[in-house]
Amino acid sequence: MVIVVVRSGGIAGLTKQWRTEPEPDRRPHWRNLVEKCPWDASPSASSGADRFQWRIEVLEGDSAVHRAQLTDGQVAGPWRALVDEVRQSAVPSRPR
């Protein structure tokens, strides 16, 4: 399992990416965080000047099993919990 969070936009228009690949003994915790997110209910991200846009992906092997595009205001509740944990467990990098 690999979880990728990408934040883009904002005043400077910078993009940051965080990626985590949980150790096998931590995967149940991460699966719980992932399963709490409303993947099927997430609308497409809308644009707005100087607002952050978020892309969240959960990969198993080479395939994305979950993918969401969210505005900054939509990153709340279970989304916020997942994003915060990924950011805390990973070193930020710029997407290629």
Q: What features would you describe in this structure?
A:
The chain has 96 residues and is α+β, with helices and mostly antiparallel strands. A four-stranded antiparallel beta sheet has the order 2-1-3-4, with helices on one face. It is built from two helices and four strands. The chain is 23% helix and 32% strand. It has one domain. The model has no long low-confidence stretch (mean pLDDT 88). Helix 1 (27-36) packs antiparallel against helix 2.
What structural category do the secondary elements indicate? Answer: alpha+beta
Spatial gap, N to C terminus: 20 Å
State Rg: 13 Å
Count of all domains: 1
Approximately how much helix is present in the residues? 10-25%
Structural shape: globular
Order of helices and strands: EEHEEH
Task: Find the count of extended strands (DSSP E, 2+ residues).
Answer: 4
Q: Report the uncertain regions.
A: none
Beta-strand share of residues: 25-35%
Major sheet: order of its strands?
Answer: 2-1-3-4
The main sheet comes to: 4 strands, antiparallel
Mean pLDDT metric: 88
Number of helix segments? 2
